[in-house]
Automatic annotation (TrEMBL):
The chain crosses the membrane at residues 12-33. It comes from Candidatus Coprosoma intestinipullorum. This is M15 family metallopeptidase. CDD domains: LD-carboxypeptidase (cd14852). Residues 168-293 form the D-alanyl-D-alanine carboxypeptidase-like core domain. The lineage of its organism: Bacteria, Bacillati, Bacillota, Bacillota incertae sedis, Candidatus Coprosoma. Keywords: Membrane, Transmembrane, Transmembrane helix. GO terms for biological process: proteolysis. It holds the Pfam family VanY. Gene3D superfamilies: 3.30.1380.10.
């Protein structure tokens, strides 16, 4: 018997091959597109190494986008990884590094602190009105000032049991100090207030006395210009113990007690040692600022000066 040989039609095979090739091409194209548009590739094109890319990809989206869109920057990763980095200050960080460090090793933590607190500028320049809406949290320093006619309306006289004669302070602060005074007494510590609220005119007189006797540079180091003093807020107290003064207060049990306990009653050490470049003042073991218990605890636990804390957590 004769069987007719069946012919295989080539048309469908060709179509199938073409379809397979097209599918492969599409898959390859999609993968290539994903590769060339990926963050990893684009960061590599910007000049970052694999390790640097790995670090950048852990950042927030806005930082990744910035790194992709700009040329490689040596300081970018180190700055963004700083705990108190503020994005709006980035260009100022870079300018400060270029102006101050050059080829020297950069202290990124200091850069961030200086820019955040405006202390990269000379004192009493680039000043602005403090935000009075912050109430007990207001910041007053050499860059943020009070209005010259500012005067709290709740100032009360302090009893000589708690202070040397002639001291006045805001009522809320007074009550907080009395609570702290009593707690210290229970631990065998006696506290006494040496200086408290000052008016604009009183602060001006103090500053002028320093300036006339020691010069402006000395006055600016050890005193505040009128309207730039925390004492004018009615929220600051200079606290000592009987028999101690500025020269030796930090050597007393009273100082050590305040270091461990003042925040519990709403007070913080305002001008700590080693932070003079940030606070703008020499170390003052006796100067305590009232913030209220909740905020004082947060500032205390942060280990920051109030200038730094305000810039990052309150003003930001």
């Amino acid at each position: 018997m004769y069987y007719k040989k069946r012919r295989i039609k080539k048309g469908p095979i060709i179509i199938l091959v073409v379809v397979v090739i097209l599918v492969i091409a599409i898959i390859v194209g999609i993968n290539l597109y994903k590769h060339y548009t990926s963050d990893e590739y684009r960061l590599g094109q910007a000049g970052y190494s694999e390790d640097e890319i790995s670090d950048i990809l852990k950042m927030d989206r806005k930082y990744i986008d910035y790194a992709i869109e700009h040329k490689y920057e040596d300081d970018f990763i180190a700055l963004v990884n700083e705990k108190y980095f503020i994005w709006k200050n980035y260009n100022e960080y870079i300018k400060y590094i270029d102006d101050v460090y050059g080829d020297k090793k950069v202290d990124y933590s200091l850069v961030v602190s200086k820019i955040n607190t405006k202390t990269n500028y000379d004192p009493y320049t680039h000043t602005e009105d403090t935000d009075m809406n912050m109430k007990n949290s207001i910041l007053v320093n050499k860059y943020y000032h009070l209005a010259s006619d500012y005067a709290p309306d709740d100032i009360v006289e302090m009893s000589n049991w708690y202070s040397y004669p002639g001291n006045r302070i805001r009522e809320e602060v007074y009550n907080a100090f009395i609570e702290m005074f009593n707690a210290a007494k229970e631990d065998g510590i006696t506290l006494i207030v040496n200086s408290s609220y000052r008016t604009h005119d009183e602060q001006e007189e103090i500053y002028n006395d320093y300036e006339s006797s020691q010069g402006k540079a000395y006055a600016d180091k050890y005193a505040a210009r009128p309207d730039y003093s925390e004492h004018q807020t009615g929220l600051a107290l200079d606290i000592f113990t009987p028999g101690a003064g500025m020269a030796n207060f930090e050597e007393t049990d009273a100082f050590r007690w305040l270091q461990e306990n003042s925040y519990k009653y709403g007070f913080i050490l305002r001008y700590p040692e080693g932070k003079e470049d940030i606070t703008g003042y020499s170390y003052e073991a006796w100067h305590y600022r009232f913030l209220g218990k909740d905020l004082a605890k947060k500032v205390y636990n942060s280990g920051l000066t109030y200038d730094e804390y305000y810039a990052y957590y309150l003003e930001k």
